[in-house]
Specification:
By secondary structure, the chain is an alpha+beta fold. Helix content is about 35%, strand content about 20%. The strands form 5 sheets. A 7-stranded mixed β-sheet has the order 5-4-14-15-16-13-17. A 6-stranded mixed β-sheet has the order 7-2-1-11-20-19. A 3-stranded antiparallel β-sheet has the order 8-9-10, with no helix packed on it. The structure holds flavin-adenine dinucleotide. Keywords: FAD, Flavoprotein, Nucleotide-binding.
């Protein structure tokens, strides 16, 4: 008997993630087929993740040591933001992934942030309160032993090309069907559903459902179904990137470093096999040659190192699920990679679709719920990312001055967050009320606003009264962290995997 078919178009990271998750969820009753074209290739960038990727591998029961070794991966405790602010004492801060300890210490940070927002001269830089910051600065792996009673979240850095290849191998072992074919035509039924995709040789590939993972090409959701694109270009100006690969660190750190440059920012991502650099910038403010030159100087790369230039389409589809087509990955949208959120949004989209699909919730009403929730996730991430630019205090270029002084319209939610912050209101309460603490938690909002030094000017601050102080003992926090870290290996030790090849 012919089984019903779910066709994934595109074999980048998004396509293989979708295929694997679908195979696990419904592969016993549906055929999952992935069609990609080796003539098109994959984008092959995107080397940082959030902790969501850990749950992706865990859910698929793929051992961490195996995939990390195959993909030249390292651990990631968070991101250092360097030189985004020129305010004394705030020229660098760390945005950590959550750890159990931060829950307790964040209360102290929030307390001090209230005092500082009201003009009292107290310490409100976030780094000292964060466990993952302590781990990263001491080059300790964030992995904790099984008996450790506290959660320490972490993400990864990985080689994007190797990750797609690895996922493909696992997917084929697990029963996903694969075709290498260039799709040149799409056949719609009278109802407007996709009936088949047709390749350059004229072969029809029919299916009941189609997952568009064709990257920026957006072959099905855009080209075929003409779903409008909501651009974020009015608030997020960066539309271009240039990348370089440099030799690996002898001891890779477990953090991404994001350094503000003249017309954007540069990532530094340590892999086992190399260090990846990328400059994300606005083509309105500099040429690709200027960007490349600046990145080369920043990374210490001479002319022998090849540079790769990319354009980025920043925004999202108005709908991600239309008829029998669901867009996943770059085809559905992209927010510039400052907080490495793309794969997490991809994973979230597939999870939401699978949930609805398995329940048989595929009617109009459910599509609407799905599209509204995916749009909200994108918009919430957009808002958080834009705070980095809005709160910058750099004076070295028009790009940074304009980012702060001539921003596009802020969303209602973001305007409310800023009002609350400047009025010294209850930010955690507001975030909950607005339901925007899902994408970024209360902690993340405090880390960014405190870390960028969004406080009254230093010269206006007055001494706090003894009753204001919470009795925070920074020595005690440091001592506590130091004792906890006895449970962690050095990052480099943790990367010496057993070398077991269980799946491949
Ligand atoms: C500069 C930059 C930095 C980034 N950094 C990060 C990061 O740090 N973290 C993160 O999570 N994400 C990041 N991303 C996003 C990340 O790269 C993507 O989310 C991820 O690679 C998934 O891409 P994709 O699979 O959607 O598309 P692609 O990798 O582009 O794959 C598209 C697939 O579609 C196929 N295809 C296209 N047209 C056809 C056709 N006609 N017929 C058949 N097949 C076709 C291609 O063959 C390919 O297999 C970054 C992106 C950019 C641009």
């Amino acid at each position: 008997m012919n089984r019903k078919k779910l066709i994934v178009v595109g074999g980048g990271t998004a396509g293989w993630m979708a295929a694997l998750m679908l195979q696990k969820a419904v592969g016993d009753s549906w055929t999952i087929e992935l069609i990609e074209s080796s003539k098109r290739g994959i984008i092959g960038v995107g080397e940082g993740s959030t902790p969501a990727l850990k749950s992706f591998f865990e859910d698929l029961e793929i051992p961490e040591d195996e995939w990390m070794q195959a993909c030249s991966a390292t651990y990631k405790s968070g991101i250092t933001f360097d030189r985004w602010s020129e305010k004394s004492g705030f020229t660098s801060y760390f945005h950590p992934f959550y750890s159990h300890f931060d829950r307790d210490h964040a209360k102290a940070l929030i307390h001090n942030s209230h005092l500082r927002r009201s003009g009292k001269d107290v310490h409100a830089h976030p780094d000292v309160f964060s466990y993952n910051h302590y781990l990263a600065k001491n080059r300790l792996s964030p992995v904790v032993p099984h008996h450790f009673p506290f959660e320490v979240q972490y993400g990864y850095h990985f080689d994007a090309g190797l990750l797609a290849q690895y996922l493909k191998k696992v997917a084929l072992i697990r029963g996903v069907h694969h075709r290498d074919a260039l799709i040149t035509e799409v056949d719609l039924s009278t109802s407007g559903d996709i009936a088949a995709v047709i390749d350059e040789k004229g072969e029809r590939h029919e299916g009941e459902w189609f997952i568009d993972c064709s990257g920026f090409a957006a072959l099905l959701i855009g080209d075929t179904l003409k779903t409008p694109f909501t651009s974020y270009a009015d608030t997020l100006w960066n539309d271009s990137a240039v990348t370089l690969a440099m030799p690996p660190d002898a001891e890779p750190p477990c953090e991404t470093v994001s350094t503000a440059l003249k017309n954007g920012w540069a990532w530094r991502i340590p892999l086992q096999s190399r260090v990846g650099y990328g400059y994300v910038y606005s083509s309105r403010y500099c040429t690709r040659e200027e960007a490349e030159e600046e990145l080369r100087a920043h990374a210490g790369a001479d002319a022998s190192v090849d540079a790769r230039h990319l354009s980025m389409n920043i925004g999202r589809r108005e709908e991600h699920w239309v008829k029998n087509c669901v867009a996943v990955g770059l085809s559905q949208g992209f927010i510039e990679p400052l907080e490495a959120t793309s794969l997490a949004l991809t994973q979230q989209t597939i999870t939401r679709f699978i949930h609805a699909f398995r329940e048989g919730n595929t009617g109009e009403e459910f599509r609407e719920i799905f599209n509204t929730s995916v749009n909200k996730s994108y918009d919430d991430v957009r808002d958080y990312i834009s705070v980095h630019f809005l709160t910058n205090s750099r004076t070295d270029s028009q790009y940074w001055v304009d980012s702060r002084e001539k921003p596009g319209p802020a969303s209602k939610a973001l305007s409310a967050v800023f009002s609350c912050w400047f009025d010294n209101g209850d930010l955690p309460g507001l975030l909950k009320h607005l339901k925007i603490d899902g994408a970024y938690s209360n902690f993340s909002w405090h880390y960014i606003l405190c870390g960028m030094g969004v406080f009254p000017a230093a010269e206006t601050l007055t001494s706090p009264s003894p009753k204001d102080l919470s009795g925070i003992d920074f020595e005690q926090i440091r001592d506590f962290f130091a004792r906890c870290t006895l449970n962690h290996q050095s990052h480099i030790e943790a990367l010496k995997f057993s070398g077991l090849k269980r799946l491949l």
